[in-house]
Amino acid sequence: MESNCGFCGVQAKLKCAGCQQVYYCNPDHQKKHWKAKHKSECVKPYELASNDEIGRFLMATKAIQKDTVLFAENPLVIGPKWNLDEYEQRSTVVPCVGCFTDCVLGQFFCELCRWPACRPDCPGLANSNLHGLECGVLRFGRPPKPGDDPQSFFDFYRYDALLTLKCLTMQIHHPDLFDQIINLESHYDQRKSTHYYTDADERVVSYLFKNFLDPLQKLERKEGKTVLKTCDRKTLHMIGGLLEVNAMVIPLTNGREICGLYPKGCMLEHNCMPNSFYTFDCSKGMKLTFKTGRDIQKGEHLTTTYTHSLWGTQLRREHLKTNKYFTCRCTRCADPTELGTFLSALRCMGMENEPCGGFQLPIDPLSETSDWKCNRCPVQITHDQVNFLVSKIGEEVDDVMGRKSSVKEFEDLVFKLQNFLHQNHFHLLTLKHSLIQMYGHFPGYHLNELSDEILHTKLKMCREMMSVIEVLDPESFRLTLYAGVILLEQHAALVELKRRQQSTVAAHEKYDLNEILLCLLRAKTILRNEMGTLQGKKLMEQIENALQNIEAQSHDVER
Ligand SMILES: C[S@@+](CC[C@H](N)C(=O)[O-])C[C@H]1O[C@@H](n2cnc3c(N)ncnc32)[C@H](O)[C@@H]1O
């Protein structure tokens, strides 16, 4: 889109990120116009609204175009993930408390609190927005010494409690930001009856009191002055809840993930087919940028996704209910076929185990206990039967995915599950996404070693998966890495088939350069917003190389 520069009137492409209404031919004219006039007239294209069902949310106050920057903001607080799995809780490679790079437990420390650091002079240790927040409180702890029982190290250095402590200590130097944090939605009452609360009670709340806060409060009483005015078990549980509901996962370029809270970013409502997306800039203090993924109409809520786009409806809704404390009623959730993708559909076994060719779909997808019925014959199955089958299959998929399984094991499971599930079922997509990457890369399965049949299977799987993605992410702003991988593999299969076709006298099919080129160009466009991630960068490198190879090949042909 182009318009005339708001300052000098020439053709201009740069748009004011605030109101999205005024264009500029260069940043200097934008600056000058801001000072002279625009500052007083610039209005954001959205506002904070609220209702009883959702609480607060952001709503468009005018039409907003696709790819518009809605806002960019710094975090209120960042820190290690608040939800570590058992394996992560016992890892000897931990994030530096100053800068979150990997470091080995027991090698270097912050000299003041003795928590692990990448080096004793890591600049993040003295940064008042990073380790400076909690270091003063951590100093009350009694860390284990070299040679102590290894378990005592894991017991003492609980990284999943650090972000809660960081939020609590914000009140010391940033009381206004602490107020913003504590006012985020924590679903305290609902969470109180869950195992998350019980687990956090021991792992985080009791741990923080026993090791650091009790000694601090003892000193406060002795000295007659208070450092942490708000410091009780309920506040810590509220912080735990608001982290669970609001914290965003930030993927660092070193592959590690940390978490952050953002003032506006935390206000976006969930939708399984959202209209906006975000990226992080790790080189700029984890700045968050929210953009529109498609055109948005006036009055629409700005939405993002809190769950996995490629999970089936039941799984997504269960995750949202358990972890975010609400039931999603979006158009995708309300459609038994999930917008025609059949992502959760089961093959109907028909009457007397004679498959009818139809698919079992939930009668009322918005009911958690709905029975299912066939879209071709009268057979119905109960919610419990579906649950049993899908969770058994889920266990098998997790098992194969969770260990170093062979290609044969993947193939066998796909072959078996195709009898029960629609080809687009999300459990099959998980396996197929791995399989297309094994075909062509695993020992014994390099591209030139694959049979024509396997090569065609790889290509078919890629095309089928892309057709699902086209429905679930039509504007390509969410499933970007996932789609990038498929397109790269689709291109690889096509290149190999084309090579074979050239060496065969009678080729049945033609694999022209067009589809190959389209895959790569599409992947390049899709990955434009993934350049801040390590995986995105690596994938883009592979795509650029593949494009260069193709260019070189077409020059050879011309010569
Ligand atoms: C990240 S917060 C969003 C801001 C929140 N509404 C507030 O007032 O602070 C997530 C919470 O918002 C609510 N929410 C978000 N999306 C929703 C939706 N589609 N339907 C109902 N509630 C939703 C839920 O209470 C959820 O736990």
TrEMBL record:
MYND-type domain ranges (all copies): 5-42
Pfam families: SET, zf-MYND
Molecular function terms, GO-annotated: N-methyltransferase activity; protein methyltransferase activity; S-adenosylmethionine-dependent methyltransferase activity; zinc ion binding
Top-level division of the source organism's lineage: Eukaryota
Zinc-finger as UniProt keyword: yes
UniProt domain SET: residue ranges: 44-307
Keyword tRNA processing tagged: no
Keywords in alphabetical order: Metal-binding, Zinc, Zinc-finger
Protein name: MYND-type domain-containing protein
